[in-house]
């Protein structure tokens, strides 16, 4: 079975990893990551959500298991790791080599990961190129070099 995980940036710009949940309590929306290794604590999950979204309520549970994240930064794990064993997420900026048929040689490309056409793909600048993950691109040949939501990456691709 494929591992389904997410990451998202919190208000301090720190990546939080785990299971994603969008909730609405009394008209207040919240986007949280239920942190890895602690996602089996669902029995107290609702209380924690209420406390995060309505901090004036008197609940006593520890909130270490959840993190509020910025919705636009949530990225899904694509089920692959890069050449250094790092998990690859949607929104990651990657570098890889492909065979350029026009010159019959290897070409280094940089792009970002996006879910498009019912699959995860590498998208280049201005949709200049689109590559799906198939036999021609192995994860051992991909290097994650950033994420489109990191402050240092002002544009989608460098």
* CATH superfamily caption of the largest domain: YopX-like domains
Low-confidence stretches: 39-43, 57-62, 154-158
CATH architecture of the largest domain: Roll
SS strand fraction: 35-45%
Condensed summary:
By secondary structure, the chain is mainly beta. The chain contains 1 helix and 11 strands, in the order E-E-E-H-E-E-E-E-E-E-E-E.
Walk me through this protein's architecture.
- The chain has 158 residues and is mainly beta.
- The protein folds into 2 domains: 6-72, no CATH class; 78-147, Roll (SH3 type barrels).
- Helix content is 6%, strand content 44%.
- β1 (6-9) and β2 (15-25) form a beta hairpin.
- The radius of gyration is 19 Å and the shape is elongated.
List the helices and strands and how they pair.
Elements: E1 6-9, E2 15-25, E3 28-35, H1 45-53, E4 66-68, E5 75-81, E6 87-89, E7 92-100, E8 105-116, E9 119-123, E10 130-132, E11 143-147
Antiparallel strand pairs: 1-2, 1-5, 2-3, 3-4, 5-6, 7-8, 7-11, 8-9, 9-10
Which descriptors would you attach to this protein?
158 residues, 11 strands, 6% helix, mainly beta, SH3 type barrels, 2 domains
């Amino acid at each position: 079975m494929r591992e389904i995980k997410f990451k998202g940036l919190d208000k301090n710009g720190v990546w939080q990893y785990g299971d994603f949940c969008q909730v609405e309590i009394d008209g207040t929306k919240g986007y949280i990551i239920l942190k890895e290794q602690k996602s089996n604590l669902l029995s107290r999950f609702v209380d924690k959500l209420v406390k995060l979204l309505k901090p004036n309520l008197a609940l006593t549970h520890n909130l270490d298991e959840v993190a509020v994240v910025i919705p636009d930064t949530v990225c899904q794990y694509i089920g692959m790791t890069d050449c250094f064993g790092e998990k690859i997420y949607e929104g990651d900026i990657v570098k890889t080599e492909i065979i350029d048929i026009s010159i019959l040689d290897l070409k280094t490309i940089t792009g970002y990961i996006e879910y498009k056409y019912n699959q995860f793909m590498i998208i280049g600048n201005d949709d200049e190129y689109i590559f799906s993950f198939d036999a021609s691109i192995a994860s051992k040949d991909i290097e994650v070099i950033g994420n489109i939501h990191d402050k240092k990456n002002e544009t989608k691709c460098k």
